Fold each of these.
Amino acid sequence: RVVAVLNGPNLNLLGEREPEIYGHETLADVEARCRHEAARHGLAVDFRQTNHEGDFIDWIHELRHSAAGFVVNAAGWTHTSIAIHDALAAVAGPVVEVHISDVHAREDFRHHSYVTPVAALVIVGHGVTGYEEAVAEIAARVGAEG
Ligand code: DQA
């Protein structure tokens, strides 16, 4: 079974983009962390990133029945996108929302999330290890072997 890990805009620049906020690890490092954690639970990972909101929505549709669960860092779209909210409302498995930084300790415009109402759990401010926690959480919720 597969956990979908979907990353939104600018996360392709992870490691070079505002490292004082997001750290020095790259998105490839995050992918490796997710694969390692998923493998511990007998799960595979479908790991993707895009800067195009329509692609992000198409991926949610594509994976909505097949994915055991979704780890979603919608990045800036978290705070803007009713369309991503609506797409995630249609998925079968649990959604875990992840933010590397502590969005609640940052600008006011990061305090509201359109993803949270459709998320089973929100993990913020744990750095990139939040992704591993999210994968483990999905494994627990779908009863994957550990
Ligand atoms: C982020 C937080 C968002 O506010 C921001 O737009 C991002 C990354 C995070 O992982 O901390 O791009 O989702």
Amino acid sequence: MTQELNDFINSIGELEESLIPRRVEQITDDFANSELSEAFGTDAFADVIDRWYGNQPGLLWEIIEKLRDRSPALASWANSSLRKLLKAPAEVIFDRSVLERNIKEKNGWNAPDEDVKRWFSALRIYLHTIVENADTQAKLDIVKQLWTNREGIRPAISKEWPVDARKLVGLEIKRFEEELNQVLTNQTVVVANTKAARARAREDLSLPGVVRPFGSRHPLRQTFEEIERIFLSLGYSVVAGPEMETPYYNFEALNIPEHHPARDNMDTFYMAAPAGASPLLLRTHTSPMQVRTMEKQQPPVRIIVPGKVYRRDNPDATHGFMFHQIEGLAVDTGITFCDFKGTVEYFVREFLGPKVKTRLRPSYFPFTEPSVEVDATCVFCGGKGCNVCKQSGWIELFGAGMVDPAVYGFVNYDAKKFSGFAFGLGVERLTQLKYNINDLQLYFQNDVRFLRQFV
Ligand code: FA5
């Protein structure tokens, strides 16, 4: 039985869960009906009790704990069903059929005192064993309930004694209960002291404190916040726009008609649309918010638009299929190219440092005219020429330009009265330049060895 039982206990972790209750019940029945019954009345009884209920952790507690580890459902099943196992010794000791036989054989209740005493001393062995081996208050509570509950041992053994035996049994129960309470109280103190001692043993005030690592902001978030701070200080406001756009806002209203070659390098992901509805796409840049903002308000406009954009680009060291941009737009009366240049220079100096110089190179965007690429002197070599700037001394920063009057036509602005400029910053690119990061994919891999450098 013991070997079989040990095998069962060891296998609880792997057994199919639905089979476990049946198996535990079977073991409990076998135990109560054979091992325990056979041992009762012999010297082996104390040993059997000790093996099952004492003998830290004891087979009983071991089964309960294994079931608890296994699943909450088994834990709650175990709590109720193992009560049977806990009651088993008391049932064996006070087996009614044995008592009845005793009465019959002795022709009435004539010499049972030693028997009654023997039963209570067996009960004493049993309950004392589990109390003394209970190492938590929860286990002690289980024992207390086991004695006093409606379904517990005391009610079960208190009833239906022959008149002649009642006095002695009543006395034995009373004596036993006092003793049990005493043992429970003692063990409660032992458990509390052990717990406190364990806690004390763990506390070593001379040890250095535990350093809890703080999280930190992602480098891209830091760039966003830095750029937002710079433009907020110039009187810009921050607005957000939808990542799912219509082709109209993403292209047409920005002066990029269908079949215009400028769409080629901005291929993206299109959503299926219901028949007749205009398809939606993942925006390829933050520029659609220029149009959406101007549709809603008349100048003066000074906004920046941080956000995610998407393109059908293959991921590599300088490209992602998802990346971040910050759009800028300023429209008012009398805004000139000089204002544009001054703003760009101020931004670059604030972002990359006072020593950095800027230059503008002619470029092309359908929604700005003239269009430029803004370059900065290389932050790594100070303009002397190095690997990063391919010996040119300059690094390309972002595209920009004066808003093309054609765009004003889409938003009902008077192109004769208003003028302005726009720019589109690639956040990954600017962060790469600022911190000399050679691979854009690092931003998205969540490797703490990389991220920790930006704390
Ligand atoms: C544009 O997207 C324009 N909307 C910018 C603009 C706005 C111009 C307003 C004029 C006025 P472009 O396609 O060059 O431009 O992209 C802008 C920046 O996004 C690039 O400089 C680059 O830093 C970044 N970028 C472009 N494609 C990728 C990509 N696949 N992965 C990461 N960054 C990218």
